[in-house]
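Write out this protein's structure.
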Amino acid sequence: MSDTNCPVCQSGYVYAMDLLMVCPECGWEGQIGEPGLATEAAPESAVKDANGNPLQDGDSVILIKDLPVKGAPKPLKKGTKVTNIRLVDGDHNIDCKIPGYGAMALKSEFVKKA
């Protein structure tokens, strides 16, 4: 552990990785004391896809695995592209419309940015 705190969340668990300092609590990466890095860090509530890429409203995503749909005769297939997503708070943090299924809520851990 280091003797400095994270400039974003003030966590004391900041550690060195290669040439960067990393905060495991908020995901901040940078050099301690470097100007402007605290404003460039992603907010804690940022939604990330399965690969760690940040998602935004209006993005397109692709499903990375088959997902069963309660009440539907068939699952959503891996590789299905979903356009114009909307981010929401909660366990299922993506709202979207999928052709053939209608309105759907997805977890960001099962999609990747298109």
